[in-house]
């Protein structure tokens, strides 16, 4: 399926903006909206037929990485202890 370059670029720019917005929502502890945004983004990637498997996997890993970065920001590690900010997590 031939797809023009502008459509691809627009999709990737929109993806990047949604990732940034999702990360901002996570760091402001707005988990519900961040989850909705990132889940919708995941399904948008999955239903896009012109993306190849490798690119889909790459974009999905960026979404997963956003959650990973957020969860790691809640953890404070000392030499022997690991403290998790459960108030923000909940």
Query: Termini, distance in Å?
Result: 44 Å
SS element count, helices: 4
Helix content: over 70%
**DSSP strand count:** 2
Structural class: mainly alpha
Characterize the biggest β-sheet. Answer: 2 strands, antiparallel
Order of helical and strand elements = HHHEEH
Number of domains: 1
Supply Rg.
Answer: 16 Å
Taken as a percent bin, the fraction of beta residues is: 5-15%
Shape: elongated
Strand line-up across the major sheet: 1-2
Description of the structure:
The longest helix is centred in the first third of the chain and has 23 residues, at 5-27. A two-stranded antiparallel sheet has the order 1-2. It starts with a helix and ends with a helix. It has one domain (5-89). It contains 4 helices and 2 strands; from the N terminus they run H-H-H-E-E-H. The protein is mainly alpha-helical and 90 residues long. The chain has helices at 5-27, 31-47, 53-73, 86-89; strands at 75-77, 82-84. Helix content is 72%, strand content 7%. The model has no long low-confidence stretch (mean pLDDT 83).
């Amino acid at each position: 399926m031939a797809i023009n370059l502008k459509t691809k670029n627009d999709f990737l720019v929109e993806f990047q903006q949604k990732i940034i917005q999702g990360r901002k929502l996570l760091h402001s502890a707005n988990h519900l909206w961040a989850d909705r945004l990132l889940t919708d983004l995941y399904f948008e990637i999955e239903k896009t037929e012109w993306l190849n498997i490798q690119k889909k996997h790459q974009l999905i890993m960026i979404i997963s990485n956003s959650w990973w970065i957020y969860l790691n920001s809640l953890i404070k590690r000392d030499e022997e202890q690991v403290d998790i900010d459960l108030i923000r997590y909940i």
